[in-house]
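Q: I have two molecules that I believe assemble together. Could you output structure tokens for the complex as a whole instead of separate predictions?
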Amino acid sequence: MKKINNTSEFNDLKRKIEESKSNQKTTITISSGTCGLARGSNHIIKAFQEELKKQRIEDKVELKITGCHGFCEVEPNIVIFPDEIFYQKLEPKDVKEIISETILGHKIIDRLLYTDPQSNQKFIYKKEIPFYKKQKRLLLENNLFVDPTEIEDFLAVEGYTALNKVLTELSPEQVIEIIKKSGLRGRGGAGFPTGRKWEITRKAKIKEKYIICNADEGDPGAYMDRSLLEGNPHSVIEGMIIGAYAIGASKGYIYVRDEYPLAVENVTRAIQQAKEYGFLGENILGSNFDFDIEIYKGAGAFVCGEETALIGSIEGKRGVPRQRPPYPAQKGLFGKPTNINNVETWANVPLIINKGPEWYSKIGTNGSKGTKIFSLVGKINNTGLVEVPMGMTLREIIYEIGGGILGGKEFKAVQTGGPSGGCIPKELLDLPIDFESLTEAGSIMGSGGMIVMDENTCMVDVAKYFLNFLREESCGKCLSCREGTQRMWEIVRDISEGKGKEGDIELLEELAEAVKDASMCGLGQTAANPVLSTLRYFRDEYEAHIKEKKCPAGVCKDLIQYFILEDKCTGCLACIKVCPQEAISGELKKLHIIDQNKCIKCGACVEACRFDAIIIK
Amino acid sequence: MVKLIINNLEVEAQEGWTILETAKFYGLEIPTLCYHEGLTPYGGCRLCLVEIGEGKKSKLVTSCTYPVEEGLIVRTDTKRVIQARRMMIELMLSVAPYSKVIQDLASKFGVTKVRFKPRNEECILCGLCVRMCHEQMDAQAIGFVNRGKDLRITTPFDIRSERCRLCGGCIYICPACQLRCQGPETETALCNACLTIEPTCLDYYDELQCWMYNAGRCGTCVREEPKK
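A: Yes, here they are, computed for all two components at once.
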């Protein structure tokens, strides 16, 4: 490919791509991000390739391997264009039928359709499925149309038009003004206004400046940044180039964790392609603006998502946060003014330039504009990435998009904001989600993790899990965070093991407040949230553990016992066969009994019993 | 010069000074542990916390690392500061109860109980030895390894470092292992034998306007609120 040197060449290229894409060819898009690959999308792709070859329709049907479509629960899934027929949970053996029935015969295969778990209704088209229908997929939608290995696919969906517009029509100040007007706030967690951040960095006196894309996503259960980088890397790159132009930076870094091999691969290729096409490098589109991006792979320390620790890590030092001020905008990477934004923030930038700040600021709430991607995981029917306008209520997200709680159980709480976020109880289900409301509820937006928990979840156990994560992932510099998380974990562990005593809750609260107050970086300051928010809404559970030595949800192993109900046990031997401890005795058609001294409370017998005869007390 | 307010006093500081340096210059005492004049500030022990800003937006920062800003409002001994500080001492004490430096701090700040199980580990990871070795001795023989609960200070690969000249600088500067406290009871990790060394202030002031002694250093004033 020849390098594009100016706007007219860019427009020619776009026209050419539009023409080549305009023929209404049947296209099968296969969701093949990391989640899809894990569910075997590779085998589906192979099966499709072979089948198309066999039927000799390779030139009539296009096979597109894309990033994650967002609906991770039903991977591997495909969308057949132009009708947008949605088939889910495919297996290689289904492929032959899809080709012969749907592609050639124009018939719908009923068993591959998505069935709504609540209404049992079947849906043929993607746009009708409630999971997609309720979303506002501004950033994620393009994952459906773009093969991340093909820059031309991205160009076909308005790719790099925002960059072209910025370089030819707008001054850096105007770009910053547009971003400020749009009301875009950082998607990494703190929600600092992006335009203002850019302005501060632009106004810094030192000429050499850097920008960084923070893709060090480490929250358990959160993967929206991965999906964007895997599925549509050019959108992030375009955002970064625009940002660099506005700020006056000549070098950018993408700090991505090494645990995301596909994201690293796709971004690396995308940068290479952007360079070949002249969107990166020297004299971009003939505008005398030079900019280059380098990838820096992180080693997977959670704390390196904190901006100053991330800068330290790129500089080759220990990933330890340092005192702000001076802020990175004044003195950042290698001592130069540096602007750090999250993957999702960068991806929003081209959108705002293309559609205008007025359009963008109409989406969302007063204080929080635009959409936010959440990774909806846990005990929910429709696991996946959901993109919704700010201000949507939790109820809408969980029940309408998420399809309700798995197995028809009762909703208990949703944990937002990753390990340093908090748990929101069912009384607050109608809470509109934005930066302020979440903080008020004792949680944080974080990068957008949303872990749904049902009635069988013990909140003490949840707090213990997150504290354990934090005590391992704290950098260890501040005594308050290192020792504080360790001690909080010890107290909560003791409570969950039935060793809790009077005064533990008060001590926990006092310690949590001190950790929150005394720590330096965002990790430490929010490290107490798992404790504080569970104490705030589920204090009675802590009390039950301490005073009655009981775990109401039946999770904490030291506080529960398994029993076999006399009237329900049929004596089928099923539980005896699965018990790894040989703790269950009994004969065929006679009552079985669990030896409490041998039982390790693994729960295998409960799963094996078909008569609900085993209960937890 | 930068003008700022510390404990309602209008003071001037030189550009580039930290809050701690400014406070020291004016004779206001802020307790420190991981701070040393000859080394770069680290901000690990969280003892030198002060409250900056006013109202809802006020927050605690370590004065040893926070640079002075024009118009900054600093309060060195508010209730919030002292509560956090006491918790830090309690945490340190539970790790290294045999350190006299920490036991003395506990006495001075009225830490009368340790509610965490003593670990007797000695090292509180203040990083003084590491900075001493790097900055003053130019040896770089020791450093931090790992993170979080596994953080520790050691030589590279846990073997005798070739760069170590056995100068003893690290031992000299260590607040935890050099001076030993013989008093602590294993049950409580607390000695408090030195508690009576300094006279205790009997007055109560709300936001610490105590000018009798080093403002609020003893912390008595916020220890127990008198019943009205």
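A: One point stands out. The radius of gyration of chain B is 19 Å.
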